[in-house]
Amino acid sequence: CVITGDPHIVTFDNQNINTQGICKYTIARSPDGTDVTKAFNVEAKFENRHDNDMVSYVEYVTIEVYGYYIQLGRDNAAWVNGELVNPMHGVVRPGLRIVMNGNYVRVMTDFGLAVENDGKWTALVKFPVDFVGATEGLCGNNDEDPDNDLLTKDGVNVTGMIDSVSLLANSWQVGT
User: Does 176 reside within a domain?
Assistant: First the structure.
């Protein structure tokens, strides 16, 4: 799943979503009942930039996994449970690593979840092949069918509805 620009989201199944909210959204998470060794939650906070309130961009990305709360922000900044860490030197915690991957800070888990953020425009969420159908959020359900990617938090497919993207985004908004 790719989140880039102002923001354009390309789901795991290649559905395009364009939303301009300036709030925090669930991007991808494991469904309820997932084995706790593979449970995760990825959120992204969007903000306006350059005095332009017509578009929004990724401000930061958070990942919750294995009891860690990881935040990836601007200028390759990364925090683990509130502690600033340096991904340039590689950070290792049980079950995960935080490293630089080109211009991106990358968080990788031992079960194959990878989240990257360049701190400017783009965030990526990647899974191994065996995660087919094992996600939910704005990035979709990863079941190789783009026609059902517009599922709200309550499981309603809003594809074809008036204001479908707003309905979808509002349902995955965090903190409302």
Answer: no
